[in-house]
Automatic annotation (TrEMBL):
Entry's transmembrane regions: 116-134, 154-178, 190-207, 219-236, 242-265, 277-299, 311-337, 344-360, 450-473, 485-514
Alphabetical UniProt keywords: Membrane, Transmembrane, Transmembrane helix
Statement: the UniProt record of this protein carries the keyword Membrane: yes
The protein's name: O-antigen ligase-related domain-containing protein
Topological relation to the membrane, as annotated: Multi-pass membrane protein
Source organism (scientific name): Bizionia myxarmorum
CC per GO annotation: membrane
Compartmental location: Membrane
Domain O-antigen ligase-related: 311-462
Length: 527
């Protein structure tokens, strides 16, 4: 039988110090009794030994007040474990350590809201901040109202919302602008052609793979490259970039409001950091939006409004917890400090927040321990929760294992872009002992692209930010320079196209920037 571990009370993470055992009852069911002095928030069932054909009929959570049935279809599965539905039961097969089932919800209790009045002041302060932001932001000019202005606005404002919404916006913009597509506009700006070439390479890889078009998950994720590189050149206008800061503030305040409730319920400030803060949206991708919003405001705003808006975006960035994006954003502000000493009024309070906000401070501390790098020499990692695995060493391990799968002609054309390639890395990670990270991508866009498409794909990838940077320098276009450098740098630490949100964001911003100019921001560069 599995061991049971729980998150309890105000804890943010599973307590692995206290396992709970199942005991067989007279009716042949099994029961695990938890410590009732703390509220149970989350439940996991760990299988540390091989299990074959263990049948699971139902799970119920019993408290003094109620009995709740768990929806087995919503259970999360991790590790070498299969969880298959067979009519009225589920069959469980587990192969080895660190495989687990996670029950699908965090438990909230009526008693959690007994002192809800304590949230009145924080929510009032939040509302005041929202009003001040509305007053500080310049009026959004997307006139004249037309199909173009409405569809581009929808695309940008829905970009960081759940999948079906922004996919619908992409379909809409493609369908309504198909007649406006101009080959002249596309070929005038070479960045469009580079992006189309990059996407075409992935199509060729898919065609000549063993799966062919039976497995097109990567192509589906990369499809915005094709659509946006064809549509945007004929309708690009920099005025729409002002919608990115609007999106950042709407999402940031929404996340902050929900995090206030989480902190109140759990009595733990860790619930205002990282994944807990950004909820459904990966915090790294939210930090990309925040970076560009900071650059846009730094370029287009002046005076108190500029520093106030930048300060709030930095606070959201601190809560999101991306170390590299935070440092790059700080560089943007420090460069401004050289020109304007008033920027110090922004940096001092931010420095205090970083010092006081322990989750972000701990993330920087993780990468400074040289002993952690010894894990790179291990042939097998016995403990999947080894303390030496942190943000940096995990990335180095992923790069090391991905590149180790390559040989011969792979260096020219890559290993492929389908799920079979993913399984190659997955098998190496399992053999290494990293079961909890077996589904990870290489966490480096250069390594990921080289691994999948070889030197040809890597060259096209590098050309996107490098060519844009060269053009930005020639035009003396600050936004292009900043965004191209940002894109070039963050690809070292993340597979930015590993999620469709990254494809949408980077493609949209770079295409709008490159197909317009800063001298007359409402005109196309081809004119």
């Amino acid at each position: 039988m599995p061991l049971v571990y729980i998150t309890k009370g105000s804890d943010a993470n599973i307590d692995f110090q206290k396992p709970y055992l199942f005991h067989k009852k007279k009716d042949s069911s099994y029961q695990a009794v938890f410590d009732t002095s703390n509220k149970v928030r989350q439940i996991r069932l760990y299988f540390n030994f091989p299990v074959e054909n263990l049948n699971l009929y139902d799970i119920t959570i019993t408290t003094d007040d109620e009995i709740k049935a768990v929806n087995l279809q919503d259970i999360n599965v991790l590790g070498n474990l299969s969880f298959q539905n067979r009519e009225s039961q589920y069959s469980i097969n587990a192969n080895g350590k660190h495989s687990f089932l996670e029950l699908p919800k965090t438990y909230i209790y009526t008693s959690d809201f007994e002192s809800i009045y304590q949230l009145v002041l924080p929510i009032l302060l939040l509302l005041i901040l929202i009003v001040l932001v509305i007053k500080s932001i310049k009026p959004i000019d997307i006139q004249p109202f037309s199909l173009t202005s409405i569809t581009i606005s929808l695309l940008i404002l829905t970009m960081f919302l759940p999948d079906p919404i922004y996919n619908g916006a992409l379909i809409l913009i493609a369908a309504l602008h198909i007649k406006k597509i101009s080959w002249t506009a596309i070929k005038t700006e070479k960045t469009n052609l580079i992006i189309l070439g990059f996407f075409s390479l992935y199509i060729l890889h898919n065609i000549f793979s063993e799966e062919g078009f039976k497995e097109i998950s990567t192509l589906e994720r990369f499809l915005p490259f094709l659509v946006l590189a064809i549509v945007i050149p004929s309708i690009a206008d920099r005025k729409y970039l002002s919608l990115f800061p609007v999106s950042a503030f709407v999402l940031g305040f929404s996340f902050l409001l929900t995090s206030l409730f989480d902190v109140y319920i759990h009595q733990n400030f860790e619930f205002i950091s990282f994944d807990y803060f950004s909820k459904y949206l990966h915090p790294v991708y939210f930090s990309y939006l925040l970076f560009f919003s900071i650059c846009f405001i730094d370029y287009n705003y002046k005076g108190k409004s500029k520093y106030f808006l930048e300060f709030l975006l930095f606070v959201f960035l601190i809560f999101s917890g991306s170390k590299m994006v935070f440092l790059l954003s700080l560089i943007v502000v420090i460069l401004n400090l050289i020109k304007n000493k008033k920027t110090v009024l922004l940096i001092i309070p931010l420095a205090l927040i970083v010092v006081l906000f322990s989750p972000l401070k701990n993330r920087f501390g993780d990468i400074l321990n040289k002993e952690d790098f010894t894990i790179l020499n291990d042939k097998h990692i016995e403990n999947a929760d080894d303390s030496r695995i942190n943000g940096l060493t995990l990335r180095l391990l992923l790069w090391q294992e991905a590149l180790a799968t390559m040989n011969g002609f792979d260096y020219i054309i890559g290993k492929g872009v389908t799920k079979e390639t993913n399984k190659t890395l997955e098998n190496r990670l399992v053999n290494l002992g990293m079961l909890g990270h077996k589904n990870f991508n290489p966490h480096n866009q250069y390594v990921d692209t080289f691994w999948r498409t070889g030197a040809i794909g890597l060259l096209l990838l590098i050309l996107i930010p490098v060519y844009s940077l060269v053009i930005g320098i020639k035009r003396r276009d600050k936004l292009i320079i900043q965004f191209s450098l940002f894109m070039f740098v963050v690809m070292w630490s993340e597979s930015i196209f590993g999620r469709v949100t990254g494809v949408y964001f980077f493609a949209t911003v770079i295409l709008i920037l490159m197909n317009t100019n800063k001298v007359n921001e409402n005109s196309h560069i081809r004119n």
